[in-house]
Amino acid sequence: MISTLEIDGRLRLFFDTGLGAQAFAQAKLSYFVMEHGFIVSRDGEMSVWQAEGAVERNGTIGLWGPAFEGRPLDVILEAAASGGDANGAVSGAGVFDAAKDVALDALRAWIAACISLSYRGVTFSLAPALALVASDGTLLFYPPTTARRSLEAENCWISGGERWIHPDLRGEEAIAFTASALLYQLFVGMPPFLNTDLEVLHQDMREGVYLPIHLAVSGLNAELVALVKSALMPTKDAQGAVPHSLPRAVQHTVQPSVQHTQRAKLATQLRDFLGDFGSKKADLYIQICTEEERTRIGLEREKFLKKSGLTVKTKRFVARNTSILAVCLAALISVGLIVRSTIESRASLPTTRGMATAEVVETYYGAFATLDHQLMEACVQKNTSKIGKGDIEMVTNLFVLNRVQQAYEYVDMMVSAQEWVDAGSPPTDLTVFGVSGLQLEVLDSDESDGETTFRASYTLWLPGSYRPLEEGEETPDPFASDGAVPPPWGVSYTDTLRLSWYKDAAWRITDITREGDARLY
Q1: Rounded distance, CA 22 to CA 334, Å?
Q2: What average pLDDT does the segment 498-518 reach?
Q3: Shortest CA distance to 129 belongs to which of 165, 101, 100?
Q4: pLDDT tens column, 209-233
Q5: At what angle do helices 171-188 and 73-80 cross, to 10 degrees?
Q6: Residue 64: which of 51, 76, 74, 73 has the closest Cα?
Q7: How far apart are CA 83 and CA 71, in angstroms?
Q8: Residue 125 near residue 145 (C-beta atoms within 8 A)
Q9: Are residues 283 and 349 in the same domain?
């Protein structure tokens, strides 16, 4: 992505665009050779960093310019992150190492440099991966367009940029938000906003969905906690918030702020609070806590995490409720039309014509996973309504629920039980349903009399919510739960199936005798 390269006997800074020569020419990226980067010293002096040319390396074109001895800000913070956690382990002075102090100084220099560039009206990127920090606190801000191309080539915009940049804020508000998110990473050991789905990540930022820093680190300086909390507050709580229609953070650059909102001067306050480069060690921002205080904070953190998950889900559902109901209604109408169409076109239903007896049985059980109730109906004798009735009704109900859920979530939340078992039965939020481990045994192989018999052994997997309560077991309170999806529930069955030959040249199931958990039927 971004590295050093020896050209004409001298080390140069190199940006790999990830594009071959032809693609590079078509993208007209040679234009960006003229784009400036900026070098900012600790005392605020600014100079221009200019790319000097383009060169092919390992099959791709990159831009190169004057060398700069430093490390990306995100790399410095990652190196320091191992000392913190979100479980209250950081609770007193002396627990941070030298890497934390280096990272804190890098953040001090970065915040001051960002404010300095913003006051000068300079366009630059807040992405921590696009800022090199030297050991003396001098910073190089890469030319934003060419550097962004390098990050995109490596497909690391979430970790290097999006995770730290609010999609709507500008000016000092944007600087304060990113600086506070990076300070959170430094003291907690992980970012405040963790989602890797870009849309959900931005929604979390706008709504302030994260574990407050005072619950993640016991004894953290109260003024630092207040500054970070104010900078990361939900957009809707800030006066004069910028509309959500602004460009994505991947295109985010900072312009001089002309708004004076509630958090317009937070970046300056953070700079002044943190002090000068090398002025205060990182562990001095954490006071020693008693065991009683740590226990109290731990209980408060546990209560927050338990409550916040349900609160966020509820708020987002309510916010989208009108459109969801419309979509669900449309889905139900669609299902009704499907049912009506099915009744009117019985002649076009699936058939078992041409199938061998074992194939009919395998098709019947395989239709569980595909929620194909019509195919199941084709496998049984039509004139006997009780054959497979419980199976077909269950599959039909899940088919309707799955269609409604697809209309709501825009994704298929159903997974085949056999696929899930073959994958090692991992924990999943998806709905596991269907038959696994199907074994067939022929009990009557003589088909000359128009009948044959099979024994089918299998496990039927259902959503965990289908599990009947045991005797004396209380119904769980959904509002007291932590929102975890109940694990799939498997029931072992042994069926005896009789098949008969019909004049339309098809074998169909005429009887099913089932041994297993009768509570489902």
Answers
A1: 49
A2: 87
A3: 165
A4: 899 999 999 899 999 999 999 999 8
A5: 30
A6: 51
A7: 20
A8: no
A9: no
Round the average pLDDT of the chain to a whole number and report it.
Answer: 80
Confidence of residue 381 (pLDDT cuts 50, 70, 90): confident
| Among 34-38, 246-250, 357-361, the range of highest mean pLDDT | 357-361
Q: Could you tell me which of 407, 425, 406, 405 has the C-alpha nearest to residue 417?
A: 425
Nearest to 358 by CA among 270, 447, 436: 447
Q: How many CB atoms lie within 10 A of CB 70?
A: 21
pLDDT band at 310 (very low <50, low <70, confident <90, very high): low
- CA quadruple 3, 77, 118, 124: dihedral sign: positive
Distance CA 43, CA 193 (A): 32
Asked whether residue 405 carries a pLDDT value surpassing 70, the answer given is yes
Burial of 391 (0-12, 13-18, 19+ CB in 10 A): buried
Please state the three-class secondary structure of 274-335 as a single string: HCCCCCCCHHHHECCCCHHHHHHHHHHHHHHHHHHHHHHHHHHHHHCHHHHHHHHHHHHHHH
Residue 238 three-state SS: coil
384 and 314 belong to one structural domain: no
pLDDT class of 404 with cuts at 50, 70, 90: confident
Kindly report the CATH number assigned to the domain that includes residue 144: 1.10.510.10
- 186 vs 345: CA distance, rounded Å: 65
Is the same domain home to 207 and 64? yes
In a 3-state reduction of DSSP, which class is residue 304?
A: helix
Of the two residues 305 and 385, the one the predictor is more confident about is: 305
Average pLDDT over residues 480-509: 82
Evaluate whether 182 touches 122 at the Cβ level (below 8 Å): no
Distances (CA, A) of 192 to 77, 134, 162, 184: 14, 26, 12, 6
Contacts of 315 (CB under 8 A, 6+ apart): 207
Q: How far apart are CA 321 and CA 329, in angstroms?
A: 12
The mean per-residue pLDDT over the stretch 379-395 comes to: 83
pLDDT at 418: 92
219 near 244, Cβ under 8 Å?
A: no
- Same domain flag for 49 and 192: yes
Question: Domain span at residue 510?
Answer: 345-520
Residue 48 located in a structural domain = yes
| Domain end call among 285, 319, 353 | 319
What are 157's two structure tokens?
């915009």
